[in-house]
Amino acid sequence: MPRMKLKSAYKKLGKKSSKEIVDLVYTIMEDTVPMLEGHDQEMIDSLAEYIFMIAGVDEKVHMNEYCLIKPLMSAAVGKDCSYAEAEKFISENGLDEDETRDRFRDVLNELSITDPELRYNMITLAMYISAIDDDVSQKEKEFIESLL
Question: How many domains does the chain have?
Fold first, then answer.
């Protein structure tokens, strides 16, 4: 997705309500989960980690991001997860660090060869999650641009 298309995509997302974006996230997840069939459990776990990492890209988990990731986060930790616990989980697991973003960038680059449709969905998912709080930070934009 070239830079101009990315700007256009963010402009369109900016006109959507948080609920509409949540619906888009669920739609992309419905498309993505079947693509993971045949992949090992590590790849499936990585999708959850990727979602948590996107929520923490700008080093702050916004309330709308938390509401979106809470069910998955609660399943990952095995109990109902509060907002503070979600932020702590992301921080303690390094999901808000540059090294983690670099690792996911490498994975997505590999997917460009092995499964370009899954890569596209993962980048789209990042855009939707970063837009859920009605403010895509510069750090979020830079990260998503780096995935392209």
Answer: 1
